[in-house]
Design brief:
Belongs to the rhizobiaceae omp19 lipoprotein family. The chain is an alpha+beta fold and 179 residues long. It has a domain of 83 residues: Lipocalin. 11% of the residues lie in helices and 28% in strands. The chain is built from two helices and ten strands. The chain has a ten-stranded antiparallel beta sheet. A hairpin with a 2-residue loop joins strand 3 and strand 4. It is extended, with a radius of gyration of 28 Å.
């Protein structure tokens, strides 16, 4: 007696369906209930009136919150030189993916060691202006510079120790990179 491949497959499938519906492997889990969750702490909510929006093309700095005095971004020397204790940099020490904070807004920037122009390619992910325009990066001595598509410097940063860089964007906003 010979069976066709299609017939054998149909019989096997019917047997699997019939046997799969009667398993008791998970029946012991039906009796177990998870422990109740601890409620989130509650507090009071305050309500304030927002200022009116600025007209297009104008920016009133008083409408924006300022960074707290204990900000995580280190101050740079006013003359643009490297801060005391800044380490010499290598491309290998910068390569990777960084969490970026620009004036309180966060995003990520990839800094692979893929040659591009006078430095290496860079890839911002959901970054605010001007960091959204980063196309490349390079290191020279103690300084990490992020560049736009025309080779203009968008930000200059220095190592703050460990896996952290602090600096300023070309328009004076504080910027930090951490891993």
């Amino acid at each position: 007696m010979t069976f066709s491949k299609t017939g054998l497959l149909a019989i096997s499938l019917a047997a699997l369906v019939a046997s799969g519906c009667s398993t008791s492997r998970f029946s012991s889990m039906d009796d177990q209930q998870p422990a109740p969750l601890t409620p989130a702490p509650s507090g009071t909510v305050t309500q304030n009136q927002l200022p009116p929006p600025a007209a297009p093309g104008t920016t009133d700095p008083s409408q924006f919150p300022t960074a707290p005095q204990n900000s995580q971004v280190a101050a740079l020397p006013p003359d643009g030189s490297a801060p005391a204790g800044a380490a010499d940099l290598t491309a290998a020490s910068v390569a990777g993916v960084w969490n970026v904070n620009v004036s309180g807004q966060s995003c990520k920037v990839a800094t692979p060691q893929t040659k591009f122009g006078a430095g290496y390619r860079a890839g911002p992910l959901h970054c605010p202006t001007p960091i959204d325009g980063i196309k490349s990066w390079n290191v020279a001595g103690k300084q990490l510079t992020l560049y736009d598509e025309n080779g203009g410097a968008l930000a200059r940063l220095y190592s703050s120790g460990g896996e952290k860089f602090d600096g300023q964007t070309s328009n004076g906003q504080p910027i930090s990179l951490t891993r």
